Amino acid sequence: MVPGASYALAPVTMAHYKAADSKREQFRRYLEKSGVLDTLTKVLVALYEEPEKPNSALDFLKHHLGAATPENPEIELLRLELAEMKEKYEATIEENKKLKAKLAQYEPPQEEKRAE
């Protein structure tokens, strides 16, 4: 602050409070519609009803919130696709080994090639 300077504070009006309350209410409705409030309430109730409280309430919340979310269908499709690709990869590796063995029957050994 500068000595001798006067600072005017902006007056806080009722309209300012109403706007903030309106934003809070909109956010609360958003959380309610999306199921966040219900999910948080269920997890907090589970923590409250836990006979032996965990050492870390935050870890409890993280664990239960992670378990409470449904599996994204896209993730499941990607897992299935990954499993398919792994099978195809293994089959290709096996086929490659067989073809190399077959090719080795028709190629002269490396020592004979050098003698030529």
TrEMBL record:
Coiled coil: 75-102
Source domain of life: Eukaryota
InterPro entries: AMY1 (IPR026060)
Intracellular or extracellular location(s): Nucleus
Keywords carried by this UniProt record: Coiled coil, Nucleus
Record bears the keyword Cell membrane: no
GO-annotated cellular components: nucleus
Keyword Transmembrane applies: no
Gene3D superfamilies noted in UniProt: 6.10.250.1060
GO MF term set: transcription coactivator activity
Stored PANTHER family: ASSOCIATE OF C-MYC AMY-1 (PTHR13168), C-MYC-BINDING PROTEIN (PTHR13168:SF0)
UniProt family annotation: Belongs to the AMY1 family.
Name of protein: c-Myc-binding protein
Organism: Heterocephalus glaber (Naked mole rat)
